[in-house]
Amino acid sequence: EKTKDSFFSKIGKAVLGKSTVDEEVLDELEEILVTSDVGVSTTLKIIERIENRVAKDKYLNASELNQILKEEIQALLEENNSSDFEQFNYSGKKPYVIMVVGVNGVGKTTTIGKLAHQLKEAGNKVVLGAADTFRAAAVDQIKLWGERVDVRVVSQGMNADPASVAFDTLQSAVANNEDIAIIDTAGRLHNKVGLMNELSKIKNVMNKVVPGAPHEILLVLDASTGQNAIEQCKQFTQATDVNALALTKLDGTAKGGVVIGISDQFKIPVKYIGVGEKMTDLQLFNKREFVDSLFKAN
Amino acid sequence: MFDNLQEKLEGAFKVLKGQGSITEINVAETMKEIRKALLDADVNYKTAKAFTDEVKQKALGQNVLTAISPGQLLTKIMNDELTLLMGGSVDELELKQNPTIILIAGLNGAGKTTFTGKLANYLKTQKNKKPLLVAGDVYRPAAIDQLEVLAGQVGAEVYTNRESKDPVAIALEGIVHAKQNGNNVVIVDTAGRLTLDEALMDEIAEVKKATNPHEILFVVDAMTGQDAVNTAKAFNDRLDFTGVVLTKLDGDTRGGAALSIKSVVNKPIKFVGTGEKMDALDVFHPDRMASRILGMGDVVSLVERA
Ligand SMILES: Nc1nc2c(ncn2[C@@H]2O[C@H](COP(=O)(O)OP(=O)(O)OP(=O)(O)O)[C@@H](O)[C@H]2O)c(=O)[nH]1
Ligand SMILES: Nc1nc2c(ncn2[C@@H]2O[C@H](COP(=O)(O)OP(=O)(O)OP(=O)(O)O)[C@@H](O)[C@H]2O)c(=O)[nH]1
Ligand SMILES: [Mg+2]
Ligand SMILES: [Mg+2]
């Protein structure tokens, strides 16, 4: 069984000839959600909400159930009080400063390249700060992205102090009258205290150049990550007040369901999704489409 | 996260305590908790189910000696079962050929290039080899530079061809270079790719076909969730890899993906990555992985307190 049955057809089979939602249907539902990385507790929460609803309106067919299910999951994504972002709009802050953080290899630098492209297309002057001065060839990588999307990159080379690079980037953004500055940071695992403290330092230094900066602290999560993403979110939020999420690599077979629990638990909205390696492969997150994709067969 | 599980297991084990043997009834609740613990550790849904069924079968009807509680017995059965599943013993690399060709494959950002550097370091310092690294990622910006920097850090040679966009040709050139240059191991780094990308999956299958590697190592992030089984299976279908490398184990993930991968492709896990530095590489220890997944340390202490 290479491609698994779509959820819809599975649910269809499970409810066939029945007038109520029974154990079998709920088991099916549990499997779908857990295998999308939604996690056991969030899955149970969703199932409970469904049970509450179907107890009232008894006669259900597969498509009605499907509808209820989607509504409940969307509701969980909505409880963080955010509607989907409609556009790249930064309400008058100049420069609007975005600091990008996350564990190793999730797609921070690539997301920055893609975001810079989008923002530039939308008519903004963008500058990037190469504050990952640690990972081999990280500075070269972001410089190449800068060339590719035709955006200026501020760097001090490898092994420079990342806070100093961030400081420089903002100073020159102000001097150059640029609209948006995006700061790359080195990947770091959230359980490494020293590295997390470094992040707070990078963050704090920016405030000295541009009051209120960074305005957006974007935590990048890899869609293929399992339950550890919750811990990532917790630790990065503690260190830096994360206020937006990006979910990358959604062009693969992983569903990224862990963001449902994260969104519910931490009240941080998912803002962007990555759907490929090209500069055009960044989209604004859309709840409805995301929930739909959970139920699509690979 | 784990405190919560501990509390629940404590309750579950209380039910078991004081009963002479393990029965369908007294084990049911505990099995449910264990299954949840496995899922929270990112063990695949089906794997977790199969595993708890197996443990239950082994446990049912066993008489509990006076010295050991049902909880302790269950813990032992689980630990044994998990260690067995993870592979009994340490699996060494096959290095007899000259040159030995090693192909590195995996998803984007898994840690392939870093591992390539670490493996070169390991082969130099532990196995007395003279490795050549081949820069076969022609897509990611600065992928070649990255490999060069890492090769420099470990003092290994590297073959690059910045003019070429053809990984098959580059790999073959690298092997020729190794033969001329007296390198007895060739490690071919490749671009990250998603399994849905047919063109890129075809490409790496071509690299394999052309170079006939002695080892093909599938590099996977230990934080991977439920998708680990799909990915491992898809790479294995195309490459029939010889071993798995689990990276980023210096994080706090339980790494249940390891168990899922083992059970779906049944290939040995050969190395684990435990940091960004070039010496942060360990050979794989099944028993350590088993206790990590189940947080067995915690479970054992829990049983001891009961
Ligand atoms: N298919 C796909 N690949 C992606 C996506 N986003 C990033 N990548 C790839 O993931 C890999 C890692 O991306 P990077 O941007 O270097 O990740 P990073 O978080 O900056 O990594 P470090 O700085 O080393 O921690 C690269 O191969 C990227 O091309 C995405 O949305 N889809
Ligand atoms: N903490 C930690 N970081 C690691 C480990 N292995 C790799 N990394 C980091 O993970 C990130 C991605 O590693 P790469 O080696 O670039 O991954 P890759 O698979 O070659 O990525 P692509 O070529 O883009 O697909 C980098 O920041 C590495 O430093 C590890 O064992 N522990
Ligand atoms: Mg980066
Ligand atoms: Mg690489």
Which terms would index this structure?
heterodimer; A: 298 residues; alpha/beta; 11 helices; 48% helix; elongated; B: 306 residues
Topology (elements, then pairings):
The complex is a heterodimer of chains A (298) and B (306).
Chain A: H1 7-15, H2 23-35, H3 40-56, H4 62-78, E1 96-101, H5 108-121, E2 126-131, H6 138-149, E3 152-154, H7 162-175, E4 180-185, H8 193-209, E5 216-222, H9 228-240, E6 244-248, H10 258-266, E7 270-274, E8 282-284, H11 287-294
Parallel strand pairs in A: 1-4, 1-5, 2-3, 2-4, 5-6, 6-7
Antiparallel strand pairs in A: 7-8
Helix pairs in contact in A: 1-2, 1-4, 2-3, 3-4, 4-10, 4-11, 5-6, 7-8, 8-9, 9-10
Chain B: H1 2-16, H2 24-40, H3 45-59, H4 70-85, E1 100-106, H5 112-127, E2 131-136, H6 143-154, E3 157-159, H7 167-181, E4 185-190, H8 198-211, E5 215-221, H9 228-239, E6 243-247, H10 257-265, E7 269-273, E8 281-283, H11 286-294, H12 296-305
Bound molecules: guanosine-5'-triphosphate (2 copies) and magnesium ion (2 copies).
Residues 112-113, 137, 140, 143 of chain B line the site of one magnesium ion.
